[in-house]
Amino acid sequence: MIDYENEKLLSFSEAARWFAGLNGGKCTPSTVDRWTRIGVKGVLLEKVAIGSKVRTSMEACRRFIEARTLGVEKVERTEARQAADSKAAAEELEALGVK
Hints:
This protein is mostly helical. The protein has 4 helices and 3 strands; from the N terminus they run E-H-H-E-E-H-H.
């Protein structure tokens, strides 16, 4: 899950340019969108919707590459990341009135 307060958010166009710059190849915003919806061999690129805008992050792009390189579906989270994700989920549930 993208930590939108601490990660560098990218539009799909920005992410496509970043991916293309890695190997001098081509990457389009529609390719980035497809990676967020369908993925590649079970690995999805993370995205976050903020209002009407959908973004990914620099860190999510790196996690995507790492997961694809390792050939796993999910990259292990650090304890700090897991704690932050748990806290964010608890706050979201509390805001919805779920206790």
